[in-house]
Amino acid sequence: MKLAVTAPDRLTVRTVPVPDPGDLIARLPHPSALAWIRHGEGIVGWGEAARLTLPGGDDRFDAAARLLRDLFGSAAVDDTVDVPGSGPVAFGTFGFDPRSPDSTLIVPRRILGRRDGRAWLTTIGDDTEPLALAHPPQAPAGLRWSDGALPEQAWKHAVAAAVDRIRRGHLAPPPPRPVDATAHTGRPGHLGKVVLARDLTVHAEGPIDPRVLLQRLAARFPGCYTFSCAGMVGATPELLIRRTGGDIESLVLAGTTARGDTPADDQARAAALFASAKDREEHRYAAEMVRDALTPLCAHLTVPDEPELLTLPNVLHLASPLRGRLAADRSVLDVVAALHPTPAVCGTPTGTAMDLIRELEGMDRGRYAGPVGWVDARGDGEWGIALRCAEIDGTRARLFAGCGIVADSDPDAELAEARAKFRPMQYALHG
Length: 431
Prior knowledge:
431 residues, alpha+beta, 13-stranded mixed beta sheet, 33% strand
């Protein structure tokens, strides 16, 4: 796939304050929904003023940042609101693997936002499209489920193979490009962790409307980042990076257990998660990598000594929030490029883990576990990791779930964790 840019020679952008619009997702007029919502705040968009379709490659984030700088830099912008997310914004979703050509950024013609008690509407081009609901959302019906690339037993065999490789000190062949093979491991190149994902497929009687899934996810998981872009829809708990001016924030999640059936069971599961050597090791790999990637970019960076507990309706996570101040003026996409892929979704060392993922998963992840979010003309933005998500294509949806595999991983336990991670999107589809 070649780089493709669909855009006018010059964007004409106008942002004005508006009264509180209420439910942002409910204002989306048709299924081509773009969204980034948490606790009812964020931005939604529709229509296309510009679209960037990027080929694979390690430079895809740099190429996206460069193209957007040119596009936004030449725009005629009238923005009386001047907050992160006002003015021209690109929603984006990137392929997980550098070899994947599946990366897209969309600049919508309309953007409706709300943050800290302020609401705004951005229009790009002529202002003829109404805010009225053009196509009422219809819930999916007649759902038929099937296995994806690997049935459960085959996936458990893949997990067992990964555990065996880790225990035997698996060393990948030298990659074609330089990789820091010593990072986060005691021995150069030896595999410490690999994240293996699996997929499920569902077919509906009619086209699946992302707005229905967004509404259900935002209501059930308000603390997650509910997103939609180019057919990728989900509610991720993991904030890869937020940039507001020179300030950045990241939330590292690794180490997971399902919620209990009672408060006492929940408490016991949380205590077991904190005490689990396997989960603490998995979390340490992820937190150390994010720290090491952000340190060269920051004038200062705050990293917690111990993880905290993040409680979601279906699972418990070990979580480490990081905060810092950038040492230079960098777009949020520059920081995304430094972070992706984290050990939370790939493994460590990166090159060794990526090679094993390609060998054992039996599928192309596409944009699952890749960065998803938005960036504005200031370089501000919020990007998460596309987790707890599905790729929608007409009447078909492909769901994903992944688990971090280390030396002490048990295939049955990992399968149970994957089942728990499928549930948010299964709920969104079934209601």
